[in-house]
Amino acid sequence: MNAFLKRLSLKFKLMILLIFLTSLMLSVYGFLALHDFEKDKISYVTETNASQASSLALQIKTELKHLIERIQFLMRGYSIQKGKLHPYTRRIFPNETQFKALFVFHKDPQKNEYILKEKILKKNSQISSLKPLQKDLIREALESDLSIGLDPQNANLWFVGLKFKIKGLKNPLVVIAALKSPQFLSHIYHSKVQDSYLFHQSGRLIIAPLQPASFLSRKNLENISKKLQSSQTGPTWGREITISSGDTWLAAASQVGYGDLFVYSLIPKSKALQGVYILMIKSLLFIFMLICITIFISVLSSTQLTSSLKQLLQATQKISKGDFDIEVTPKGEDEVGKLAQGFKIMTNEIKRLLAETAEKARMESELKTAQLVQSNLFPQSPFRKNHIEIQGYYQPASECSGDWWYYSLAGSKLIFCIGDATGHGVPAALVTSAAHSAITLVESLPEMPLSQIMDLFNKAIRNTSKGQVMMTFFLGTYDFNTNILRYSNASHDPPFLLRRKKEQITKKDIHLLMDVNGPRLGEKEHVQYKEAQVTLMPGDRLVLYTDGLLEMHNKKGKMFGERKFLKSLLEGFNENLSVEETIQKINKDLSKFREGAELNDDITFFIVEKGLAA
């Protein structure tokens, strides 16, 4: 072999050497580039899966939250002895656009099972598909507080079961609502690339795509569900899962937050990496073409070939060390120049992928900037004037929140409001910005009727979000001359009014401002909001809050709740603590209960007090 190499001319020795080195370096480069691209692609698809599952879970949670509130509202005044809904509920039920029927089940001690006690149907509605799902819905509602079922014969009809506890009743009721198709169904039914599924923790499949993008048998789907649940690391997580057939799937799951429900987003790994395989074939063909060009060039000009390959070799060595910040300068338009151009194209593709990573970091920085801007929408200092004092507290659950509160002077009136937009992030923050812009206009029109002000807010939210994001909202105007507080409500939690007495007050003495209520801002285009009024007396204290405070959970999963909140309020009120001291006490009680657990919703509340000297 050595004798044969010695007899070869230098031209052929250089040609063999150049071919060997070029093939080796390009292969190493191609392997590293494709390997990194495959890892980045898997990471991207996994994040996309998790984002889709999280987004769908949030949408389901939002719709379920609204439905739970409506069911609880309809069950107010329910008579246990008669087993009848309140006459007011029967009167307004035909106006509930999403509801088709409402069923109330009581536990029969003798039969030890739940039986239908009361039902209410809309006119011409016949719900015959509840019976096959009835036992599962009742059982899961009792176990998980909430259950969901889909009509097997009508994809646009679904059921929500809710455990309903009533004071004085040993066994809770189960309320099942028959409803029209929710918005999130279309996201599950019509798959594009990933397939989304809604599962119960027990393994029961609730909703699946009508035409999945990728076929998956029921057995393999249940297998993936078990493996996903066994590897849970948080509210949203993802991993690769290999099923019995040997296929690998990229799967992500997200907790809905109600009724032990989970959203799964699935895609075959082979489908996710289809672009990588195509790039691999093209890279192999491209490398083969480069080798052919190298052979041709080496025959014509060994010097030029050596110079060009040296440049490529240096660049390849940098890439093998992870340094992609290189620049290959093509020389001429011949084959060597084209070789360098091809190398440059592949290098720029790697640099583009790195730039995308940097772009993600930039977006995180912009979210922090948006958080700073949104913080300026809130009052910057307490209000103290004409014996009225206002102070509040706000803590967001993410960079951008959907909670907002504000106060402003307009002539002889004090305007104050609180709102809670659906969801979190930039969309919810934009809605709060729209509400802030609307109140700036209201400040210049102090005599505008409250109903018109609410209409102005509704149009501002509607035009900003186009019905995709809505806001619960409470608006009040206090007249310093008459001491009258006028207010209007758009499905927000009614404020608490604590009136000063000679003796200490109890929970029974607390008044709820709930004489009027209307749909959320942005939910409907044309709404006529009503107003009510109450006279504030010296020593009165009005407390406004968002539901994130009551629904705050600690590390054990227990909710703070209305009872603990009222306890803190009453203690501060009866101990004659100032507004500032009361807010500090509530924050202390919240922190002690929370134990450092992560917030799942924004916490906002503020207090309006009329001083005793007024």
Describe this structure in words.
The protein is α+β, with helices and mostly antiparallel strands. The chain has 4 domains: 120 residues, Beta-Lactamase; 87 residues, Beta-Lactamase; 93 residues, no CATH class; 235 residues, Phosphatase 2c, domain 1, CATH 3.60.40. Helix content is 44%, strand content 22%. It is built from 15 helices and 21 strands. The strands form 4 sheets. Strands 11-12-21-20-17-18 form a 6-stranded antiparallel sheet. It has a 5-stranded antiparallel sheet with strand order 2-1-5-4-3, with helices on both faces. It starts with a helix and ends with a strand.
Q: How widely separated are the two ends?
A: 110 Å
Number of domains: 4
Please name the fourth-level CATH homologous superfamily of the largest domain: PPM-type phosphatase domain
Helix run count: 15
Strand order of the largest sheet: 11-12-21-20-17-18
Q: Write down the CATH topology of the largest domain.
A: Phosphatase 2c, domain 1
On the 0 to 100 scale, the average pLDDT is: 82
Instruction: Identify the CATH class of the largest domain.
Output: Alpha Beta
Gyration radius over CA: 33 Å
The major beta sheet can be summarized as:
6 strands, antiparallel
Structural class estimated from helices and strands: alpha+beta
Helix content: 40-55%
DSSP summary, beta strand count:
21
